[in-house]
Amino acid sequence: MASQAVTPQSVDFSKWYNEIVYRADLAEQSPVRGCIIIKPYGWEIWEAIRNGLDRRFKETGHQNAYFPLFIPESYLKREAEHVEGFSPELAVVTHAGGKQLEEPLVVRPTSETIIGEAFAKWIQSYRDLPLLMNQWANVVRWEMRTRPFLRTAEFLWQEGHTAHATHDEAEAETLQMLDVYADFSITEAAIPVVKGLKSDNEKFAGALRTYCIEGMMGDAKALQAGTSHNLGQNFAKAFNIKYLSRENVEEYCWTTSWGMSTRMVGAIIMAHGDDKGLRLPPKVAPFQVVAVPVYKNDSEEGMVMETITRLVKELRAAGIRVHVDNREESPGFKYNDWEMRGVPVRLEIGPKDIEKNNAVLARRDVPGKEGKQFVSQEGLVARVRDLLDDIQANMLRQATEFRDSHIHDVKSYDELKVVVEQGGWARGWWAGSSEDEKRVKDETGVTLRCFPLEQPGGSGICWLTGKPAEKIALFGKAY
RNA sequence: CGGGGUGUAGCGAAGGGGCAUCGCGCUGCUUUUGGGAAGCAGAGGCCGCCGGUUCAAAUCCGGCCACCCCGACCA
Q1: What would the pLDDT profile of A28-83 be if each residue is shown by its tens digit?
Q2: Are the C-beta atoms of residues A121 and A114 closer than 8 Å to each other?
Q3: How far is residue A43 CA from its own chain's centroid?
């Protein structure tokens, strides 16, 4: 009866996830395998993510621009590691205008190369640095296995691209944007992500270092929700991005790139959903409040709708996103429907409430009668606003508690295997090679998610190799 | 690309040579409505595609295509 925050035991996520995406009307399948049609309700969640990020980008001095969808194949080939990393998943255009093209065009899987080409022209002097750009775009990666939002053949994202005079400036930028992602995830998406450094195995093709934020989903699996790369001088050298220094010496730039995608919509679904459906954090919810009228006949309908219209007007004037559900369905149906769609607060108004000048508020994050309260219509706006804040904070708290109770310290391979069995992340001292990582993946299915930036200090013994280790690493199953 | 499976109404399924079926959903009307309502009347089909066998094919045979699940890639 009572609906709990999701645990691996309560929901079969593989079935739950797709069903919820489609039933909640976030998206539907497209004629092309692995692509999705994002429907209005899903799009508005993405827009909330977009707005949250874009505001932060402006605050950190980045400008938006747009670069072409098509990239000459030869561009990709200029950075050896980059082309090797992306080749298997490229979509390539060979014909256009009724003719075979002289050089095939790649549909961008990411834009480092074409933006690098532009940067090379734009940057002459140290006075042009740093160059801080961002673009909102779609990219295509022909993945073998896809899931709506979490991994689609085409996805939407923002990709930031910057150029700097020194390694340290580029590194500072990389870490700053990682902080931006973490701040957004925690304060708006209510997902307590871990900031970390990727291993060489998992880093971006062509990068010096890749940082990431990892979130724990409701099934205790890990999802990389954003990445920030320090590209070193690799792309600068491949694309000839040079500047003349104050000392009149020609130098290669240091570049960065960073991105967050529509995968974040999937992260919000997976991190917060329960067995009744979605639970959306108020800050990203398309509708923060849904008003459900309750009435028996036309005269009651008139009275109820009059009250609702008045209250909704007040709520909207206070900047709260409200939807009025006046469909010809039973109230019970609507309650379940909006719970499934994850609306944080439901406002019920019926004749009995109007008699007492009351309203009913039900919160999505607290299940059943516990979450339902009868309140006066006086001061409703302030009450709803407080309630939304409380829900936002409570959802972050729930997700944090869930995450922390599913991270386990391990000192041996056997202990790690127990964690894999139970579900969760294993945290332990790590001093292993890429081959060791691959072996662990083959044998258990878990991968090295990241080296968290917050390290306890000191040193220890690697749980696999027994070698002295300087760093703690997180291992977990990934999406 | 390997192994397994499925294609019949918008969705989910039954039917295995002889009128194209059922449930949900959809449309209309009526009664309902404080936690997923009910009755009546309707609409909706290239039975994945191409070929073969047959008086007759959704059904049997051959080929093809698409999609799903499990492995190798990934924001």
Answers
A1: 888 788 888 899 999 999 999 999 999 999 999 999 999 999 999 999 999 988 89
A2: no
A3: 14
pLDDT digits (tens, 9 = 90+) for A366-381: 988 899 999 999 999 9
Nearest residue, CA→C1' of B74: A143
Say which residues have a Cβ less than 8 Å from residue A209's Cβ, sequence separation at least 6.
A171, A174, A197, A198, A203, A229, A230, A232
Bridge partners (DSSP) listed for residue A349: A293
> DSSP strand E in A320-402: where?
322-324, 345-349, 358-363, 372-376
**Closest-approach nucleotide to residue A89, Cα vs C1':** B73
Task: Report the residue count for chain A.
Answer: 479
CA/C1' separation A464–B1 (Å):
34
Nearest to A165 by CA among A253, A240, A230: A253
Alpha-helix residue ranges (DSSP H) falling in A188-297: 234-239, 263-272
pLDDT digits (tens, 9 = 90+) for A131-157: 999 999 999 998 888 888 999 999 999
Q: What is the predicted ipTM?
A: 0.85
The reported pLDDT for the residue numbered A29 is 82
Strand B nucleotides where any atom sits below 7 Å of a protein CB = 1, 32-37, 66-75
For A325, other C-beta atoms within 10 Å of its C-beta total: 19
| Three-state DSSP class for residue A233 | coil
Contact between A116 and A131 (Cβ < 8 Å): no
Distance of CA A316 to the CA centre of its chain: 28
Asked whether the beta carbons of A428 and A452 are under 8 A apart, the reply is no
Q: What is the pTM of this model?
A: 0.95
Shortest CA–C1' contact from A150: which nucleotide? B75
Residue A239 tokens read as 């694309």
Distances (CA, A) of A354 to A291, A350, A397, A437: 14, 6, 35, 64
Cα A173 to Cα A160, A161, A199, A402, A432, distances in angstroms: 11, 10, 20, 31, 29
The spacing between the Cα labelled CA in A327 and the C1' in B39, in angstroms, equals: 21
Tokens representing A74 are 């030869």
Any idea what DSSP says for residue A221?
A: -
| N-term to C-term CA, chain A | 30
Cβ proximity of A374 and A360 under 8 Å: yes
CA–CA gap between residue A213 and residue A196 (Å, rounded):
6
Could you tell me which residues come within 8 angstroms of residue A278 by beta carbon, excluding any fewer than 6 positions away?
A20, A24, A269, A272, A340, A341, A342
Residue A255 to residue A116: CA distance in whole angstroms: 9
Q: State how far Cα A181 lies from the chain centre.
A: 9
**Residue in A421, A474, A467 with CA at minimum distance from that of residue A448:** A474
